[in-house]
Specification:
The chain is of the alpha+beta class. It has 4 domains: 89 residues, no CATH class; 39 residues; 195 residues, no CATH class; 81 residues, no CATH class. The chain contains 24 helices and 11 strands. Strands 1, 2, 3, 4 and 6 form a 5-stranded antiparallel sheet that branches. Strands 5-10-9-7 form a 4-stranded mixed sheet, covered by helices on one side. A two-stranded antiparallel sheet has the order 8-11. Strand 3 and strand 4 form a beta hairpin. It starts with a helix and ends with a helix.
């Protein structure tokens, strides 16, 4: 019943704002145009189509707003008038009234606002689908931003997620091609990330982790969290100042180098993904700014850490190998990696998959972003994945969404950017760090605490194993060997201790060489 009610509500809002007619009007077939005229049903829409779409998404709730945010970063996929209107969804969603926001903040802090802040701005500086932000000043003079969760978000999101889960089950039940896309697992991933975003304490922890990870990369700034005033519904963080990255004219007037900014963005993204396996996964312009302060001029400012992506070592390794093979145009290796990772059935002919991948990718190499039609690329990729039964990897859905955001930002900042040549050196350096003597030294250093604990116990463990009662008569010769070893115990122990000292010396020597090199 809840699904029926929510579905009816969605249908009513879409009809009210004429989104059905808007979708049909974008198609050119004569029959479709006739259907569009019939669907209009006498309704008149004087409001611009972009504004109607934005207002419909706002009314439908957080999940629909997030969909609009993604579209707003892709003016190459949607008309410019719609993209510019949807950009308001990034931080200009109608806010919670000031009095109600104040009550919510005091409830989250557990004390009056005056007890924490010497100044507090009642009007929010930004308001998005899940939360809104107010500026304030602590009693010690530090400027902060106060983020508060909007009320009633849990119920709305639960309703929409329940509907999505039901739709996913229908798709898997009635569509063989739908099963390949694994919609239930994709929705489950989405479910997890949305529920995480409803816990602002988790967002604060994400920000702290990202701040530590990026401490040695002077290209991006992450606000510091003020933990005494952080809870599930309210967090207080360092106030950051910057210009939203989509305000291109303002940044150009200030003298920002857009080519450097675009390259830095690619470096930041690949560092988070492949070095750390922990990346900001909501990189629309409302969450990314550029600092104009003299001491940090041209550096990125990251905001809103409710959604982060994580990758396992296995995922990072396979992705990096795929990217490098793409950059080297080694399409056969790309095909082999897809089979090895289980992304395509093991019976797939490597030669056929190689040829299909070459046909999709080759036309787009050595071309700037402005000359690449992402819509065509996505369509060809979807057709290829369908032909070869490529399974969607749910754990990579956030990465794919973030890559779309990054590529969209690149188009805005530097349409001449060659994404391939910019990313290739970084990934090759990363792969070199994963193999060879540097990787060996790093792994030895990581395992050193385990070696230090196990090495002294090794003689005793070997002796106990040799003296253990045999499991069958087939190992009778071992008993004789044990007696021989007992008679020569001192000599054996001396040999083992010598070997252990040599091994320990090797480990310590390798660590000293590594530290000296660094």
């Amino acid at each position: 019943m809840r699904h029926i009610t929510r579905s009816a509500r969605i249908g009513y809002v879409l009809l009210r704002y004429g989104i059905d007619q808007l979708a049909l009007s974008g198609l050119s077939h004569r029959g479709v145009r006739l259907a569009s005229w019939l669907v209009r049903g006498g309704r008149q829409f004087d409001t611009p189509r972009g504004e109607r779409l934005r207002r419909a998404l706002e009314e439908l709730g957080p999940i629909f707003v997030k969909f609009g945010q993604v579209l707003s970063t892709r003016p190459d996929l949607v008309p410019p008038d719609i993209a510019s209107e949807l950009a308001l969804l990034q931080d200009r969603v109608p806010p919670v009234p000031s009095a109600q926001a104040r009550e919510l903040i005091e409830a989250g802090l557990g004390q009056p606002i005056e007890a924490v802040f010497s100044q507090f701005e009642a009007e929010p500086v930004a308001s998005a689908s899940i939360a809104q932000v107010h500026f304030a000043v602590l009693h010690d003079g530090r400027e902060v931003a106060v983020k508060v969760l909007r009320p009633g978000m849990q119920a709305v999101i639960e309703d929409d997620l329940a509907l999505l889960h039901t739709l996913a089950r229908w798709v898997e039940r009635f569509s063989a091609d739908g099963r390949r896309l694994r919609p239930r697992e994709v929705v489950a991933e989405f479910d997890t990330y949305l529920h995480d975003e409803l816990d602002l304490l988790r967002e604060a922890a994400n920000a702290a982790q990202l701040r530590r990870n990026m401490a040695d990369l002077p290209l991006i700034m992450v606000p510091e969290m003020h933990w005494p005033w952080c809870s599930r519904t309210v967090i207080v963080m360092q106030r950051m100042t910057g210009v939203p990255i989509n305000q291109v004219e303002r940044l150009r007037t200030a003298g920002v180098d857009f080519k450097t900014l675009a390259r830095d963005g690619v470096t930041i993204f690949f560092t988070q993904v492949f070095r750390d396996g922990f990346f900001h996964a909501d990189m629309h312009p409302g969450n990314i700014q550029v600092s104009l302060a003299p001491e940090t001029f041209g550096r990125y400012v990251a905001l809103d850490f409710g959604i982060v992506g994580t990758l396992s070592e296995t995922d990072k390794d396979y992705l990096a190998q795929n990217f490098i093979a793409f950059f080297r145009r080694d399409y056969r290796r790309v095909a082999e990696l897809h089979v090895e990772s289980g992304w395509v059935p093991p019976s797939t002919r490597i030669e056929s998959l190689e040829a299909a991948i070459r046909a999709v990718c080759e036309p787009h190499f050595d071309r700037p972003l402005k000359d690449i039609s992402l819509g065509q690329v996505l369509m060809r990729l979807f057709q290829t994945s369908r032909r070869f039964n490529v399974e969607i990897q749910p754990q990579l859905v956030l990465l794919q969404k973030t890559l779309l955001n990054v590529e969209g930002l690149g188009r805005t900042l530097d349409p001449e950017l060659d994404l391939w040549s910019t990313a290739k050196p970084f990934l090759e350096r990363w792969m070199q760090q994963q193999v060879g003597w540097r990787a060996l030294v790093r792994h030895l250093r990581d395992e050193a605490p385990h070696y230090a604990r196990l090495l002294p116990e090794l003689p005793r463990l070997v002796h106990q194993r040799l003296l253990a009662p045999p499991e069958s008569e087939a190992i009778a010769p071992l008993r004789a060997r044990v007696r021989t070893l007992e008679r020569a115990q001192q000599r054996t122990q001396g040999f083992i201790l010598s070997a252990l000292w040599l091994l320990t010396g090797f480990v310590l020597g390798a660590l000293l060489i590594h530290w000296f090199v660094q």
